[in-house]
Design brief:
homodimer, about 200 residues, alpha/beta, Maf protein, 7-stranded mixed sheet, globular
């Protein structure tokens, strides 16, 4: 059965298609469907925002739709920026400005208090209102300065002690451990068990 | 019909009873009921945590139960500390330590970027699983230093430009504008319309 991959971001589409390849799903991305305005992400959690998107496209196209929402939770900031990850330094700010703000907020804070997690929630909704949900996490620490030139977003400041690198320094390895990989791998398994 | 007021905090019980007095409800606090271990607040939003508590006591006592969850959201911190408000500087920290941490994080940040909101979500759940929900907000700014000697929690650093005071400097006025007042006043009206 055809599944709408409900993200408008071409980089994310490629990444998710790659993760889901082993499961032989019939995915169609938004770029290959008639254009429609995207819904407002008014949820208070990753889960609510992923559901808003999946729900919207499932009803609009009358096909099962798969969406995700993700972000960075920093323990020292009481869970922020969380769902505000992409607009943490204002709606027009760059990745670099967001990372700079984060490092400034954590300036002088000892390593033991710099714990953080990348979180991704993936949700599939059918036009009949059925729902499947998976979550992926990647636990790490906020670095004291940016490092690594791959990845995007908060990758240059998200440090993994077991690799002694930020996720921006991991190269292709990142795609086998990332929060998005974990959420969509679990989703792929769930979907293939359900006969998709 | 008797309603369980599902909070173990005596100060909060008094405050809520005071707000709900005009509605002539039949409230019974946990202190007047057989003791029971409180449920874990594992929710990801104020709403989920309030629901966990109301649900738990409604089922345990087989009476409608009214609970709330509240906290401070700081825009500059991407919505933190939010549901982590009471353990923002570690589980054993004092109000003073939490406020100090917040002021340090926002040191040098201009007033226009210090917007914050106190939020309270109140939920009543019946043993039959019906639910009523209200929310109260108080919008303000994080002060640059503590002021005022009344209130508690983040009150000394929560500044209201229209009063030129923090909520710790407002005295009894605070109880007529607070997030908790707004949530429970709306709940009182809802409950009296529903015949409680």
């Amino acid at each position: 059965m055809e599944i709408v991959l409900a993200t408008g971001n071409p980089g994310k589409v490629r990444e998710i298609e790659e993760i889901l390849k082993p499961y032989g799903l019939d995915l169609v991305s938004l770029a290959h469907l008639p254009q429609v305005d995207s819904p407002s992400e008014t949820g208070k959690t990753f889960e609510e925002n992923a559901r808003i998107k999946a729900d919207f496209y499932a009803h609009h196209f009358q096909k099962p739709a798969l969406a995700d929402d993700s972000g960075l939770e920093v323990e020292y900031l009481g869970g922020g920026p969380g769902i505000y990850s992409s607009r943490f330094a204002g709606p027009e700010a760059t990745d670099e400005e967001r990372n700079k703000k984060l490092l400034t907020l954590l300036k002088g804070v000892p390593f033991s208090q710099r714990r953080a997690a990348f979180i991704c929630v993936a949700i599939l909704v059918t036009p009949e209102g059925e729902e499947l949900k998976t979550e992926g996490r990647l636990e790490g620490y906020i670095a004291t300065r940016p490092a690594g030139d791959q990845g995007f977003g908060y990758d240059p400041v998200f440090f993994l002690p077991e690799y002694d690198k930020t996720t921006a320094g991991l190269g292709k390895q990142k795609n086998k451990i990332s929060h998005r990989y974990r959420a969509f791998k679990a989703m792929g398994e769930l979907l293939s068990r359900q006969g998709y």
